[in-house]
Amino acid sequence: MSIQSIKEGDYEGIRGEIRKVLKQPQYDDGSAGPVFVRLAWHASGNFSLVEHNGGSNGAGMRFAPESTDPANAGLTHAIDFLMPIQAANPWISHSDLWTLAGITAIEAAGGPRVPWQPGRTDYTSAAAAEEHRGQVGDRLPDGAKGADHIREVFSRMGFTDQEIVALSGAHALGRCHPDRSGFDGPWVVNPTRFSNQYYKLLLTRKWVPRQWDGPFQYETTVAGTKLMMLPTDMALIEDEKFRPWVEKYAKDQDLFFKDFSLAFGKLLELGVDRDDTGFAKLVKKAAEEGKPLDKVKMAGWGCPFAGTGPRGRDAKL
Ligand code: HEM
What we know:
mainly alpha; Peroxidase, domain 2; 5 strands; 5% strand; binds protoporphyrin IX containing FE; Haem_peroxidase_sf
């Protein structure tokens, strides 16, 4: 596999380079895709509507305290897999590359195309990150908790119950690692294929507490493979407002793909406030400037670069 230098602004070309590093026969289930998706989600999921800080812009996870946050354990694997692409293409920001890797992985795994725009900029140093990003720690969800916790965490980002259930379907990909989260195992039999299996299994299998000396989790066995659910996954069928969406997505994969694509696209945009150059500058906490909450962009945009800077005009999306 040889990584190429791609013409500046050619994001379709970068997707091609990301596809080259997806296959990792020695790693987990043979794919870097799941950990790319988790990187994109954790990079974005510390956004707060109230404080208007956090989010993927800046790629703050390269620096402590985010880099050492136990919630992000294992994401260095994803960052390392992407490093050769970054090295060959220093024009792309880490924050654009990480988010683009997440959506490229989903599509390559058979999932939907997720709307995505470039323009994120990176903190240039740990000191810059410390000065600009604010207190963004302790904002990611804890898998050991229940429905109230999930709602609290995701409503801080501006997500509805329906969107929370749609986003959770990403657990069709990948697995839990005892040396990262402490939890263990995949959610589905084929964890490198994006599908609505997660919802089907939640509804149709008998999930029982696993007897082991690790954290409390649920298990079942399908075709000889041990599968798992976190307490937060089970909350989606226990909670009366979440459950109808699990039932809808279990029945209708197209609906799941459509809703997932919009919600994931929205997640990756949180806190990315582009100016008229098409770039999202790193300004001192927007909250301090009294930035109105409706500045948060939603999915369904056009190209932000139309008629703007040279990189913008050249951008191939
Ligand atoms: C209630 C919300 C959530 C909780 C509590 C949660 C928790 C977890 C935990 C504990 C792991 C295992 C980490 C490890 O041991 O390596 C994990 C993995 C994963 N999560 Fe979530 N998650 C949540 C939401 C999401 C969302 C919104 C997405 C993306 C849209 C996502 C995508 C993934 C993926 C793809 C993996 C597998 C990573 C890998 O295989 O390395 N999760 N999650």
